[in-house]
Protein backbone atom coordinates (compact mmCIF):
# COMPACT_ATOMS: atom_id res chain seq x y z
CA UNK A 1 0.00 0.00 0.00
CA UNK A 2 1.53 3.37 -1.04
CA UNK A 3 2.29 5.67 1.90
CA UNK A 4 0.45 8.98 2.28
CA UNK A 5 3.06 11.75 2.25
CA UNK A 6 0.90 14.33 0.43
CA UNK A 7 1.25 17.03 3.12
CA UNK A 8 4.83 16.19 4.14
CA UNK A 9 6.47 19.27 2.60
CA UNK A 10 5.62 22.80 3.69
CA UNK A 11 3.32 24.63 1.24
CA UNK A 12 3.00 28.40 0.91
CA UNK A 13 -0.75 27.97 0.47
CA UNK A 14 -2.77 24.86 1.19
CA UNK A 15 -5.56 24.33 -1.34
CA UNK A 16 -8.88 22.59 -0.72
CA UNK A 17 -8.73 18.83 -0.31
CA UNK A 18 -10.04 16.87 -3.32
CA UNK A 19 -10.29 13.18 -4.11
CA UNK A 20 -7.89 13.31 -7.07
CA UNK A 21 -5.31 10.88 -8.51
CA UNK A 22 -2.73 11.72 -5.88
CA UNK A 23 -5.20 10.97 -3.07
CA UNK A 24 -6.52 7.84 -4.78
CA UNK A 25 -2.96 6.44 -4.96
CA UNK A 26 -2.47 6.59 -1.19
CA UNK A 27 -6.07 6.49 0.04
CA UNK A 28 -5.89 3.10 1.76
CA UNK A 29 -2.95 4.23 3.89
CA UNK A 30 -4.44 7.70 4.45
CA UNK A 31 -7.79 6.53 5.83
CA UNK A 32 -6.26 3.81 8.00
CA UNK A 33 -3.78 6.21 9.61
CA UNK A 34 -6.28 9.11 9.87
CA UNK A 35 -9.64 7.68 10.96
CA UNK A 36 -9.67 6.08 14.41
CA UNK A 37 -11.68 2.87 14.27
CA UNK A 38 -11.92 2.70 10.47
CA UNK A 39 -11.01 -1.01 10.39
CA UNK A 40 -13.65 -1.71 13.06
CA UNK A 41 -16.35 -0.03 10.96
CA UNK A 42 -15.47 -2.25 7.99
CA UNK A 43 -15.52 -5.42 10.07
CA UNK A 44 -18.95 -4.64 11.49
CA UNK A 45 -20.34 -3.62 8.08
CA UNK A 46 -19.60 -7.24 7.18
CA UNK A 47 -21.40 -8.49 10.29
CA UNK A 48 -24.40 -6.25 9.58
CA UNK A 49 -24.52 -7.39 5.94
CA UNK A 50 -24.64 -11.03 7.00
CA UNK A 51 -27.65 -10.34 9.22
CA UNK A 52 -29.64 -7.65 7.44
CA UNK A 53 -29.24 -8.05 3.69
CA UNK A 54 -32.43 -9.62 2.37
CA UNK A 55 -33.03 -11.93 -0.60
CA UNK A 56 -33.75 -10.21 -3.94
CA UNK A 57 -32.65 -6.80 -2.64
CA UNK A 58 -30.05 -4.16 -3.44
CA UNK A 59 -27.19 -2.85 -1.28
CA UNK A 60 -25.67 0.57 -1.79
CA UNK A 61 -22.21 1.83 -0.87
CA UNK A 62 -22.47 5.62 -1.19
CA UNK A 63 -19.07 7.31 -1.45
CA UNK A 64 -17.40 3.94 -2.00
CA UNK A 65 -13.82 5.26 -2.50
CA UNK A 66 -11.67 2.16 -3.16
CA UNK A 67 -14.52 -0.22 -2.33
CA UNK A 68 -13.61 -1.30 1.21
CA UNK A 69 -17.22 -1.26 2.47
CA UNK A 70 -18.44 -2.89 -0.74
CA UNK A 71 -15.91 -5.67 -0.22
CA UNK A 72 -16.96 -6.11 3.42
CA UNK A 73 -20.59 -6.47 2.33
CA UNK A 74 -19.81 -8.74 -0.65
CA UNK A 75 -17.77 -11.12 1.49
CA UNK A 76 -20.50 -11.49 4.15
CA UNK A 77 -23.85 -11.38 2.36
CA UNK A 78 -25.71 -14.66 2.87
CA UNK A 79 -28.95 -13.69 1.15
CA UNK A 80 -29.57 -14.75 -2.45
CA UNK A 81 -30.05 -12.75 -5.64
CA UNK A 82 -28.58 -9.52 -4.29
CA UNK A 83 -26.50 -6.87 -5.95
CA UNK A 84 -24.29 -4.06 -4.67
CA UNK A 85 -24.35 -0.62 -6.24
CA UNK A 86 -21.18 1.26 -5.31
CA UNK A 87 -21.20 4.98 -6.08
CA UNK A 88 -18.52 7.67 -6.02
CA UNK A 89 -18.22 10.92 -7.95
CA UNK A 90 -14.41 10.90 -8.02
CA UNK A 91 -13.29 9.11 -11.16
CA UNK A 92 -9.76 8.52 -9.81
CA UNK A 93 -11.18 6.73 -6.75
CA UNK A 94 -13.58 4.64 -8.80
CA UNK A 95 -10.81 3.56 -11.23
CA UNK A 96 -8.76 2.17 -8.36
CA UNK A 97 -11.88 0.69 -6.80
CA UNK A 98 -12.48 -1.26 -10.00
CA UNK A 99 -8.86 -2.52 -10.01
CA UNK A 100 -8.94 -3.55 -6.35
CA UNK A 101 -12.27 -5.38 -6.51
CA UNK A 102 -11.08 -7.29 -9.60
CA UNK A 103 -8.56 -9.04 -7.35
CA UNK A 104 -11.34 -10.86 -5.48
CA UNK A 105 -13.66 -13.61 -6.58
CA UNK A 106 -17.01 -12.36 -5.36
CA UNK A 107 -20.32 -14.07 -5.93
CA UNK A 108 -22.41 -10.90 -5.47
CA UNK A 109 -22.64 -8.74 -8.60
CA UNK A 110 -21.24 -5.22 -8.12
CA UNK A 111 -22.24 -2.24 -10.20
CA UNK A 112 -19.72 0.63 -9.97
CA UNK A 113 -21.32 3.97 -10.71
CA UNK A 114 -19.52 7.27 -11.18
CA UNK A 115 -22.13 9.76 -9.98
CA UNK A 116 -22.99 12.26 -7.31
CA UNK A 117 -24.91 10.44 -4.59
CA UNK A 118 -27.39 13.33 -4.55
CA UNK A 119 -28.42 12.47 -8.13
CA UNK A 120 -28.95 8.72 -7.99
CA UNK A 121 -32.13 6.83 -7.29
CA UNK A 122 -32.29 4.23 -4.54
CA UNK A 123 -34.70 1.33 -4.75
CA UNK A 124 -35.41 -1.99 -2.97
CA UNK A 125 -32.44 -1.41 -0.67
CA UNK A 126 -32.01 -3.67 2.34
CA UNK A 127 -28.63 -2.12 3.25
CA UNK A 128 -27.20 1.31 2.53
CA UNK A 129 -23.73 2.28 3.74
CA UNK A 130 -22.33 5.78 4.02
CA UNK A 131 -19.01 5.06 5.67
CA UNK A 132 -17.58 8.57 6.27
CA UNK A 133 -19.33 10.14 3.27
CA UNK A 134 -22.26 12.25 4.53
CA UNK A 135 -19.71 14.62 6.12
CA UNK A 136 -18.73 15.76 2.59
CA UNK A 137 -22.29 16.65 1.53
CA UNK A 138 -23.33 20.31 2.02
CA UNK A 139 -25.14 20.52 5.36
CA UNK A 140 -28.34 21.98 3.89
CA UNK A 141 -28.66 19.02 1.50
CA UNK A 142 -28.24 16.26 4.07
CA UNK A 143 -31.90 16.06 5.18
CA UNK A 144 -33.14 15.57 1.61
CA UNK A 145 -30.52 12.91 0.88
CA UNK A 146 -31.38 10.89 3.99
CA UNK A 147 -35.10 11.12 3.14
CA UNK A 148 -34.43 9.85 -0.39
CA UNK A 149 -32.44 6.94 1.01
CA UNK A 150 -35.21 6.11 3.51
CA UNK A 151 -37.82 6.11 0.74
CA UNK A 152 -35.72 3.70 -1.36
CA UNK A 153 -35.36 1.17 1.43
CA UNK A 154 -37.51 -1.87 2.14
CA UNK A 155 -38.96 -2.62 5.59
CA UNK A 156 -36.33 -4.15 7.89
CA UNK A 157 -33.53 -2.51 5.90
CA UNK A 158 -30.61 -0.70 7.53
CA UNK A 159 -28.64 2.46 6.84
CA UNK A 160 -25.12 2.56 8.28
CA UNK A 161 -23.73 6.07 8.74
CA UNK A 162 -20.19 6.60 9.99
CA UNK A 163 -19.03 10.16 10.58
CA UNK A 164 -16.51 12.43 12.17
CA UNK A 165 -18.60 14.43 14.67
CA UNK A 166 -18.34 17.58 16.76
CA UNK A 167 -19.43 18.17 20.34
CA UNK A 168 -21.44 21.14 21.64
CA UNK A 169 -19.23 21.46 24.70
CA UNK A 170 -16.11 23.39 23.61
CA UNK A 171 -13.80 21.70 26.10
CA UNK A 172 -15.00 18.20 25.19
CA UNK A 173 -14.70 19.03 21.48
CA UNK A 174 -11.13 20.32 21.95
CA UNK A 175 -10.25 17.15 23.87
CA UNK A 176 -11.50 14.93 21.03
CA UNK A 177 -9.67 16.96 18.39
CA UNK A 178 -6.45 16.78 20.42
CA UNK A 179 -6.81 13.03 20.78
CA UNK A 180 -7.52 12.62 17.09
CA UNK A 181 -4.32 14.50 16.31
CA UNK A 182 -2.44 12.39 18.86
CA UNK A 183 -3.79 9.30 17.08
CA UNK A 184 -2.44 10.63 13.76
CA UNK A 185 0.92 11.42 15.32
CA UNK A 186 1.13 7.90 16.75
CA UNK A 187 0.52 6.69 13.20
CA UNK A 188 3.51 8.57 11.81
CA UNK A 189 2.10 11.91 10.64
CA UNK A 190 4.20 14.97 11.59
CA UNK A 191 2.77 18.14 13.15
CA UNK A 192 3.20 19.88 9.77
CA UNK A 193 1.29 17.13 7.93
CA UNK A 194 -1.49 17.22 10.51
CA UNK A 195 -1.89 21.00 10.38
CA UNK A 196 -1.71 21.26 6.56
CA UNK A 197 -4.26 18.45 6.15
CA UNK A 198 -6.48 20.16 8.71
CA UNK A 199 -6.44 23.41 6.69
CA UNK A 200 -7.11 21.54 3.44
CA UNK A 201 -10.12 19.67 4.78
CA UNK A 202 -11.60 22.41 6.97
CA UNK A 203 -14.33 23.64 4.61
CA UNK A 204 -14.70 20.31 2.83
CA UNK A 205 -15.55 17.96 5.69
CA UNK A 206 -18.25 19.53 7.91
CA UNK A 207 -18.93 17.55 11.09
CA UNK A 208 -22.22 17.75 12.98
CA UNK A 209 -23.21 16.64 16.48
CA UNK A 210 -24.46 13.14 17.24
CA UNK A 211 -27.82 14.66 18.25
CA UNK A 212 -28.16 16.29 14.82
CA UNK A 213 -27.50 12.97 13.06
CA UNK A 214 -29.89 11.14 15.35
CA UNK A 215 -32.64 13.74 14.87
CA UNK A 216 -32.26 13.73 11.07
CA UNK A 217 -32.54 9.95 10.88
CA UNK A 218 -35.65 9.89 13.10
CA UNK A 219 -37.17 12.79 11.16
CA UNK A 220 -36.65 10.90 7.88
CA UNK A 221 -38.76 8.08 9.31
CA UNK A 222 -36.29 5.52 10.67
CA UNK A 223 -37.99 3.69 13.54
CA UNK A 224 -34.75 2.80 15.37
CA UNK A 225 -31.43 4.60 15.46
CA UNK A 226 -28.50 3.12 17.36
CA UNK A 227 -25.01 4.50 17.73
CA UNK A 228 -23.00 1.29 17.84
CA UNK A 229 -19.44 2.68 17.71
CA UNK A 230 -17.27 5.58 18.81
CA UNK A 231 -13.53 6.18 18.83
CA UNK A 232 -12.64 9.75 19.83
CA UNK A 233 -14.61 12.07 17.49
CA UNK A 234 -15.54 9.35 15.00
CA UNK A 235 -18.71 7.30 15.33
CA UNK A 236 -21.01 4.98 13.48
CA UNK A 237 -24.81 4.59 13.66
CA UNK A 238 -27.25 2.05 12.34
CA UNK A 239 -30.73 3.27 11.43
CA UNK A 240 -33.38 0.60 10.91
CA UNK A 241 -36.52 1.08 8.82
C1 LIG B 1 -14.76 3.47 2.81
N1 LIG B 1 -16.77 4.75 2.24
O1 LIG B 1 -13.57 3.19 2.60
N2 LIG B 1 -21.14 11.92 -4.44
C2 LIG B 1 -20.43 10.77 -4.54
N3 LIG B 1 -19.31 10.53 -3.80
C3 LIG B 1 -18.88 11.50 -2.98
C4 LIG B 1 -19.56 12.74 -2.86
C5 LIG B 1 -20.74 12.92 -3.63
N4 LIG B 1 -21.45 14.05 -3.56
N5 LIG B 1 -18.89 13.51 -1.96
C6 LIG B 1 -17.84 12.78 -1.55
N6 LIG B 1 -17.83 11.58 -2.17
C7 LIG B 1 -15.32 4.67 2.08
C8 LIG B 1 -14.63 5.94 2.52
S1 LIG B 1 -14.24 8.60 1.84
C9 LIG B 1 -14.07 9.13 3.47
C10 LIG B 1 -15.31 7.19 2.05
C11 LIG B 1 -12.91 10.03 3.75
C12 LIG B 1 -16.86 10.49 -2.01
C13 LIG B 1 -15.40 10.93 -2.18
O2 LIG B 1 -15.03 10.96 -3.55
C14 LIG B 1 -14.67 9.85 -1.38
O3 LIG B 1 -14.27 8.77 -2.19
C15 LIG B 1 -15.70 9.38 -0.34
O4 LIG B 1 -16.93 10.03 -0.68
C16 LIG B 1 -15.36 9.73 1.10
O5 LIG B 1 -15.51 2.81 3.57
O6 LIG B 1 -12.14 10.34 2.82
O7 LIG B 1 -12.80 10.44 4.95
Task: Please characterize this protein's 3D structure.
It is a single chain. The chain starts with 20 loop residues before the first helix and ends with a strand. It has a domain at 38-166 and 204-240: Vaccinia Virus protein VP39 (Rossmann fold, 3-Layer(aba) Sandwich). The chain is built from eight helices and seven strands, in the order ααβαβαββαβαααββ. The protein has 241 residues and is an alpha/beta fold. The longest helix has 17 residues, at 170-186. Residues 19, 31, 63-65, 68-69, 87-90, 93, 116-118, 131-133, 136-137 line the site of ligand GEK.
Describe the secondary-structure layout.
Elements (H helix, E strand, L loop, with lengths): L20 H14 L3 H15 L5 E5 L5 H9 L6 E6 L2 H11 L8 E5 L10 E7 L10 H10 L1 E12 L5 H17 L4 H11 L8 H11 L3 E8 L2 E7 L1
Parallel strand pairs: 1-2, 1-4, 2-3, 4-5
Antiparallel strand pairs: 5-7, 6-7
Helix pairs in contact: 2-3, 5-8
Bound molecules: ligand GEK.
The site of ligand GEK has 20 residues, from helix 3 and strand 2.
CATH class of the domain at 38-166 and 204-240: Alpha Beta
The CATH architecture of the domain at 38-166 and 204-240 can be named as: 3-Layer(aba) Sandwich
Mean model confidence by pLDDT: 96
Catalogue the unreliable spans.
Answer: none
**Number of helical segments with 4 or more residues:** 8
Which small-molecule ligands are present, each listed once? ligand GEK
Report the helical percentage.
40-55%
Distance between the termini: 38 Å
In what range is the share of β-strand residues?
15-25%
What is the CATH third-level topology name of the domain at 38-166 and 204-240? Answer: Rossmann fold
Strand order of the largest sheet: 3-2-1-4-5-7-6
Per DSSP E runs of 2 or more residues, the count of β-strands stands at 7
Structural class: alpha/beta
Form type: globular
**Looking at this structure, what is the CATH superfamily of the domain at 38-166 and 204-240?**
Vaccinia Virus protein VP39
